[in-house]
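Pilot study result, target chain (331 residues):
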Amino acid sequence: MIYDNHNRPITYLRLAVTDRCNLRCFYCMPEEGIKYLPKHQVLTFEEMERVVRVLARLGVQKVRITGGEPFVRSGLMDFMHRLAEIDGLDDLSMTTNGVLTAPHIEKMAALGVKAVNLSLDTLDRERFRKITRRDELPAVLKTLDALLKAGIQTKINAVVMEGQNTQDILPLAEMTRDLPVDVRFIEEMPFNGEGSHYPVLHWTHRRIVDEIRSHYPDLQKQPDPPFSTSATYQIPGHQGTIGVIAAFSRTFCGTCNRIRLTAQGTLKTCLYDNGVLDVRALLRGGASDSELTTAFLQAFSHRPANGFEAEQQRETLSGIPISESMSTIGG
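Predicted structure:
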């Protein structure tokens, strides 16, 4: 196992296989979309597999496939099959918007995919269309049903946005009554291709919990799993659980075990940094596995203490404020 300079283990890689997406969620990118990477600038699956093998030897045990939307890239299931065979990896998961996912769920279960995070910000079809700029709610709900039938652990990710879907907090929480799902409410972040929508974040993690407790006064705090980004709650008698992620407030940085690799091969040791290592350049420049290992360890030894420090360093060193799309970062 490897540790960063703050003695946090690094065991979890979020791997973006594409920056492309079939939705246009307004909190992720502008309506016209973003300028997608040319194909030659995106890591090949073979390059990604090599990186995962190197990181697995260093102690990374979990890989979550993200995007963009992973299933817009052809050949994904064959790639996941190869990842599932890598020694040292014991957890292969995915984050998806669910539009194209349902036909692949049987194969995912057979591969041993442990968990899927399903993006779902509302159960109202018209609000879904306004938020995502696409009318795809039925397809997403079909995926949710298929995931549960396949026995894959399912987490529903809902970004809470003022004036957009706060009326959906309680209906989404109510889903935990009869379904074994973890509904996770996420503070909105500025990674939308435009910068922050609001000068002040009104729907903080505390306010979200207060809103749920106003309807479910017996809401109970539950123990959080190790390295969890969410604070876990449960309504007595409900099958599922509720999570609240302080993604903007950044209350969980002290136990963060995650790193990210973008589709173009940029290593991010914090969601809020501007990228700390050009892995693609190393790969295509002929670096050996030993040289890759040295470069990774060097990057891990200079990791910021938290997202606030990473953001400050980013602005000081590059002068580039946060304005990119989450689609280019990788979930």
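One observation from the pilot: The two ends are 24 Å apart (CA to CA). A full batch analysis is planned for the follow-on phase.
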